[in-house]
Automatic annotation (TrEMBL):
Family from the record: Belongs to the peptidase M1 family.
Membrane-topology descriptor: Lipid-anchor; GPI-anchor
Primary location group: membrane
Subcellular location: Cell membrane
Protein name: Aminopeptidase
GO molecular function: aminopeptidase activity; metallopeptidase activity; zinc ion binding
InterPro entries in the record: Aminopeptidase_N-like_N, Aminopeptidase_N-like_N_sf, ERAP1-like_C_dom, M1_APN-typ, Peptidase_M1, Peptidase_M1_aminopeptidases, Peptidase_M1_dom, Peptidase_M4/M1_CTD_sf
Organism: Anopheles dirus
Length: 946
């Protein structure tokens, strides 16, 4: 039997990339307002407010075959404050003809203003025009500029692309005039991607969201193409034999980042809408000829989502038309969601309702009503995320989520905010997690205020704000007024207070419920939730939240009642009364109404564990709540807030549980515990317990496998199989070796890899030296022409999967001591990272470092990054006293020789000491529970290797 379940664990986390069961991007792609791009703009210096734009007249001429564009813009302005200068955004890549620059006063017959000079500000995307005389307050002016630039592929601003389709036409409205359009299979297009601040790459402008003004736009196009724009086409004017000018209807007031167009020869997908359905705006879908069948239902899905959102907002979009484009070769992660024109990747537009709904929400909240500044982008995005999930759920039950919303992001939030240093101090990650937490807080308010009050509050928020901007407080104030009106909050409480207690902290609380069974009461306390040790976060005792305490009792299992029995109003402790008798449990925060874990006294936990093990009663507790109870128990134990004996009791019902939502977090929970006990004698017993849980689940899923089955079944079976394979499950290993042998027997093994990725790790872990060596040679001889990611995967598995030290030693000797030229420094860093995934890896790396110290020092003399990575991976993962002694001895033996890694090994020693304390406290408890369980439950060892 394999000693190191960590190979299995590492495989799930490092190779499968499945934090908490599935990565959140797998079911929910974070879209539109790109927080990582918007965050740096929060501290950006704003343009002076002396001059305020009132409108743009813009003429653009993109030249497709030369990949350049030219244009002219007239900007009308009002002088709000006396000034002698005008500042506009203009990217350094944008050429502005300073000789062809005129400024006129529109209410005067005088000639152009006298310009003293024009500056392009170094290191800032600004164009500043200085005048001889000050401009007059209240007067109107017009700035006229000519400009030009290059069109690049996959660059913000104006981008170019191409696609191929079968020969035989498929061009635009006048394709017949172009023989080339009929014969060529390559088609070109040009489009825009302006979010969050890329309009300045195309024309000089006031490129800030608060400036919302109308645009009058004309665009030159080839006669073989057409132009989609924010508004409808007004007229077309001839230009020359090959080109025409499309003139569009004036836009409503809008921010520059919602401006967008697409010049292409895509075809409109025939409408399947009922002519009697007068839904506004009119929806049009565009795609290449060969893709029309794939998007035949998109218009109908957009219309369904639009109706739902119009019902929610209580107001229709003020647009005459909405164009939805499936753009081939579109490479951006996020759609280009311009007002009235949404451009998707082809692969994204064919999915369920969530993606469509999210982009439609941005038409209301983002385009029509806009955040005043980038600091409120996360609120905008959080509302969009919540409403999109809500819309998708109301339409078809959220089938595309497979029930994972909101659990996947919730578990990730729990994990991230319980670290000593959330986000690893990476600002972009902080913006994303803050946005996700805000979305969960909105979900909490939707429950606790009531869905009707919450919806009416958002409707109140957008009323009278058409074509204007907002900040976060505007949202919370509207919800507060509605909650007071509906008597869902007392007059002394505001939603602002509740929300700010959550989103202003990079933390979440943990609620502890200790019952007094004789008195039928409970004391509820809150404090900071921390999993990562040591628990020495500054000022944690001062952190308090507004927390709704929703209670479900065993004697009245009504999970529809989501009203808070009590609110913890940023106080440390409250009391609950009138609880059930001493033999009945309570559940606080059912269905994860609020984003916080809950701990109970041991008796309540055990009442829950017993109830869940009974088939007739388990399903009386909904799936989300069963998942929460399991997830909270294990994580609280890991954090040191709950006995592992109690936590393991809460896993006993998993022998009978078959719902994938309850199982999803289990794999990562196994990972976390497995990592911690990897080097201890308890590990083998833990692995045996994991096998008893997973083997019947997997075999049942295999027995019930069908060709047409729900995706969640396939995913759950795949997860269970991967874990069991890495734990030595014989049927899986034999299947993997049969598949791998076909590769070994192929006449040209370097031509390609015919083995599915799922088979490689089990073979490298459990297979022969010959099989592992074969994989190593495939990396060494990897052809340049093949996809590099295949080599990377092989390299990861060669290092991360084996439990035998001789395989890892062989790899380290070749890469480090022999300095084999087939391996780059990036390869070596990757190997060090993979070896840190399990004790067989990092302990072998440690011994390799210990026995080859002098030679390694010479190899890494001028490669400090590699040296630091090696010391970190070789010394930082031990969790026992034995490991501490080993690392400490190395530190003393080579005192003063660590160079740049001196602080790394010192930190390692500090962390190991903390982890050793955890092991001393918890391993005896875990072992005692496992001994008792294994003594009374048979384990099918004959099905496993080793």
């Amino acid at each position: 039997m394999g000693r190191h379940v960590l190979s299995l664990l590492m495989g799930a986390v490092s190779l499968m990339l499945l934090p908490y069961g599935y990565s959140w991007t797998e079911y929910r792609i974070r879209r539109s307002i790109d927080l990582s791009a918007a965050n740096p703009l929060i501290s950006d210096a704003k343009l002076p407010t002396d001059l305020v734009p009132s409108g743009y007249s813009l003429h653009l001429h993109p030249v497709l075959d030369r990949a350049v564009f030219t244009g002219r813009v007239n900007i009308t302005l009002v002088c709000a404050k006396a000034t002698n200068q005008l500042a506009l955004h203009a990217h350094h890549d944008l050429t502005v003809d300073e000789l062809d620059l005129t400024v006129l006063r529109t209410d005067s017959a005088d000639g152009p203003l006298k310009i003293r000079r024009v500056d392009r500000v170094p290191k800032k995307p600004l164009l500043v025009v200085y005048f001889h005389d000050a401009l007059v307050v209240g007067a109107s002016y017009e700035v006229r500029l000519a400009f030009g630039g290059n069109i690049w592929e996959n660059v913000e601003g104006i981008f170019a692309g191409k696609y191929k389709q079968q020969l035989g036409g498929g061009g635009g409205p006048e394709a017949a005039e172009s023989e080339a359009a009929v014969e060529a299979d390559e088609h070109a297009y040009v489009g825009t991607y302006f979010r969050p601040h890329h309009a300045r790459r195309v024309f000089p402008c006031f490129d800030e969201p608060a400036y919302k003004v109308p645009f009058n736009v004309s665009i030159v196009r080839p006669r073989t193409h057409h132009v989609l724009f924010n508004t409808e086409l007004a007229r077309t004017e001839p230009l020359d034999a090959r080109h025409v000018i499309d003139v569009f209807r004036q836009t409503p007031p809008m921010s520059t980042f919602t401006f967008g167009f697409l010049v292409s020869d895509l075809l409109q997908v025939p409408s399947m809408a009922d002519e009697r359905d007068d839904l506004k705006p009119t929806v049009r879908v565009w795609a290449r000829r060969d893709f029309q069948k794939n998007v035949a239902d998109v218009e109908q899905r957009v219309r369904v989502a639009l109706k739902k959102l119009q019902e929610y907002w209580g107001v229709a979009l003020p647009l005459a038309k909405l164009d939805v484009v499936a753009l081939p070769g579109f490479s951006y992660v996020k759609p280009a969601d311009n007002w009235g024109l949404i451009v998707f990747k082809e692969s994204e537009v064919t999915r369920g309702y969530y993606n469509l709904a999210q982009e439609l929400v941005y038409q209301w909240l983002g385009s029509w009503i806009t955040p005043h500044w980038w600091s409120d982008a996360h609120v905008n995005k959080a509302i969009a995320g919540f409403l999109s999930a809500d819309t998708a759920t109301k339409i078809d039950g959220g089938d595309e989520f497979e029930g994972k919303y909101p659990m996947t992001i919730l578990y990730s939030i729990y994990y991230e905010f319980s670290k000593r240093y959330p986000h690893s101090r990476i600002t972009a990650m902080k913006q994303e997690t803050t946005c996700s937490k805000t979305e969960l807080v909105l979900r909490m308010l939707n429950y606790t205020l009531g869905e009707g009050t919450f919806r009416r509050g958002l409707q109140r928020f957008i009323q009278h704000r058409e074509y204007r901007t907002f900040d976060g407080d505007d949202v919370w104030e509207a919800l507060t007024k509605q909650a007071h009106l509906d008597q869902r909050l007392c007059e002394s409480v505001t939603v602002n207070e509740v929300v700010n207690s959550w989103i202003t902290k990079d933390r979440i609380p943990m609620v502890r419920v200790v019952r007094s069974y004789a008195n039928r009461t409970a004391t509820v306390t809150q404090r900071l939730y921390l999993r990562e040790r040591p628990h020495d976060v500054p000022e944690q005792d001062k952190m308090l939240w507004w927390i709704p305490i929703v209670v479900v009792a065993q004697d009245r299992l009504d999970f529809r009642n989501v009203s808070a029995a009590k609110w913890m109003r940023q106080v440390r402790e409250v009391q609950l009364e009138e609880l059930p008798g001493p033999d009945e449990f309570i559940i606080v925060n059912p269905e994860e109404i609020g984003p916080f874990p809950v701990n109970y006294d041991e008796r309540n936990w055990n009442l829950l564990a017993t109830f869940l093990q009974r088939e007739e009663s388990r399903t009386l507790i909904p799936v989300y709540t069963r998942a929460k109870l399991l997830h909270d128990a294990w994580n609280l134990a890991y954090a040191g807030d709950l006995s592992f004996g109690t936590a393991f009791n809460m896993t006993l019902f998993m022998r009978y549980e078959r719902n994938h939502l309850v199982w999803n977090p289990v794999f990562t929970l196994i990972d976390h515990i497995g990592r911690h006990i990897d080097m201890s004698a308890v590990h083998k017993k833990f692995e045996m317990y994991v096998r008893t849980l997973l083997t019947p689940l997997y075999e049942e899923l295999v027995g019930a496998q069908q060709e047409s089955e729900e995706m969640w079944r396939a995913n759950l079976r795949s997860l269970a199989k991967n874990f069991l394979c890495r734990a030595g499950y014989k049927p899986c290993i034999e299947e993997a070796q049969r598949a791998f042998k076909k590769w070994m027997d192929s006449p040209d093994p370097d031509a390609g890899n015919p083995v599915a990725n799922q088979y490689i790790c089990p073979v490298f872990k459990w297979g022969t030296r010959e099989e592992w060596e074969f994989g190593l040679q495939r990396v060494i001889n990897f052809p340049e022409a093949r996809v590099k990611s295949e080599r990377t995967y092989l390299l990861k598995t060669l290092a991360g999967c084996p439990s035998q030290p001789f395989k890892i030693d062989r790899l380290l000797n070749i890469m480090v001591l022999e300095d084999n030229g087939n391996f780059t420094d990036n390869d070596i860093s990757l190997i060090f990272k993979m070896l840190s995934g399990g004790s067989s890896g990092y302990s072998t790396l440690f011994n390799f470092l210990k026995h080859n110290w002098d030679a390694i020092k010479i190899r890494f003399k001028d490669r400090e990054s590699l040296w630091d990575n090696m010391i970190n991976s070789a010394t930082g993962l031990f969790t026992t006293q034995e490991g501490y002694d080993m690392v400490s001895q190395l530190y003393v033996q080579h005192q003063g020789e660590f160079g740049t890694a001196e602080h790394i090994i010192e930190k390692s020693l500090k962390n190991i000491k903390e982890e050793t304390k955890w092991s001393d406290d918890n391993l005896p408890v875990i072992e005692a529970w496992l001994d008792q369980f294994l003594a009374s439950n048979g384990v099918a060892d004959q099905k496993f290797l080793g």
